[in-house]
């Protein structure tokens, strides 16, 4: 049997309505960072309040995704490579990740409640066996062998295959 290698991605959205304490800390710190960093891309003569307005006026403002993401890095490091909101079918509450990317959905320097970010977590390379009964069946073992310990993640919103490598 030929086994593909994949990488899964799981995206969360964080805004002012988020109730999880980790999300609240990330929300607060990324908003503060956005307010500070956006100043360097904003015009004194014609200032823009929202991220989308700023981005349409100054394409260099796209750097804000990365610059604001730095404020979330300490919180992501606390997770130690496991995002605990994506259960497998056995009920284990973790999604292994090796990288993440933060993006600003929108923000407004005058209105805290309009700040919204997305964080996408990327799994390590996994062996992929297909979808069985609505579940991705994968293994952390990517070496060619005859035996694999598997994990099954339900196909669900915000979880997708973002990379595939055929053998």
Description:
This protein is an alpha+beta fold and 167 residues long. It has 3 helices and 9 strands. It has helices at residues 21-38, 51-57, 64-78; strands at 4-15, 82-87, 93-96, 99-106, 116-122, 126-132, 135-139, 151-154, 159-165. Strands 1, 4, 5, 6, 7, 8 and 9 form a 7-stranded antiparallel beta sheet that branches. Strands 2-3 form a two-stranded antiparallel ribbon. β6 (126-132) and β7 form a beta hairpin. α1 packs antiparallel against α3 (64-78). The mean pLDDT is 94.
Task: Jot down its keywords.
alpha+beta; 167 residues; 24% helix; elongated; seven-stranded antiparallel beta sheet; 9 strands; two-stranded antiparallel ribbon
Concise description?
The chain has 167 residues and is an alpha+beta fold. It has helices at residues 21-38, 51-57, 64-78; strands at residues 4-15, 82-87, 93-96, 99-106, 116-122, 126-132, 135-139, 151-154, 159-165. The strands form two sheets. Strands 1, 4, 5, 6, 7, 8 and 9 form a seven-stranded antiparallel sheet that branches. A two-stranded antiparallel ribbon has the order 2-3.
